[in-house]
């Protein structure tokens, strides 16, 4: 249980919303300019000047606001955490960089706060549509100021499932069986927009290989809304390493685990 009071949590939530408003303005402005794009591991793993600038901006805000906390972030400006003791912030400055560069849509900025490994708050900014999905177990989940209700607890066969395209293509983790069992399947190519579709009830579930900054915010929001979040074997996620993440309605989650294990 978090040591923070509900008032403190609401204050943090409103503070981060102000940061994200600034980040959105900076990101939209940068999209009108020529992006500085580089490869990380290969030509499908991209980083831009916006990823780096956003991370520096957010990390600087966090360090001034919560000096004792640690930061786990994508582009190397955070800390090298060995545990989840105390307050830990997760930062994904541009989630879905390929989409950001090539499509100019279906990307997000994500921030999350955990305390002693327990979820406190999460924020997913849909930059293009100017909507922040935010909240946590103490205050509920909101799309901007609209409080969200839990999605309908449908089975896998009753909804659309979102999957990692590369792993679906090669039949990994039973994704081919999962796609066939669902009413339909889609590939979005970014964690934040995929989590948004699940918490909004537009998709029955989502699974992909993710790093902690990819799933930290989405896990807070999904669990607060009563959705199931685990790795593909049904175990709790390791917050400091990569996981094959599965978020889904409770019924679809059981259906997917059964297919994966069969």
From TrEMBL:
Q: Which Gene3D superfamilies match?
A: 3.40.190.80, Fructose-1,6-Bisphosphatase, subunit A, domain 1 (3.30.540.10)
Cofactor dependence is on:
Mg(2+)
**EC code(s) of this entry:** 3.1.3.25
Q: Name one Pfam family in it.
A: Inositol_P
Q: Name one GO biological process term.
A: inositol metabolic process
Question: What are the protein's UniProt keywords?
Answer: Hydrolase, Magnesium, Metal-binding
GO MF entry, a single one = metal ion binding
Record-annotated residues binding Mg(2+)?
A: 74, 92, 94-95, 214
The protein depicted here goes by the name Myo-inositol-1(Or 4)-monophosphatase
The organism encoding this protein is: Leuconostoc citreum (strain KM20)
